Amino acid sequence: MTDDNTSGPRRFGSGPFKGRSLKQHIARRLVLVLPLTVLMIVLAKTGALDRMLDRYTFKPMSWFDNNALVQHLRVTVTHNGMTGDRADCLLFIVNGDTPPQATLIDVMEKHSGSCPVPDGSLPKLFTLRVDRPAQRVETDQGSPGLFHPIPQ
Question: What is this structure's pTM?
Answer without folding.
Answer: 0.71
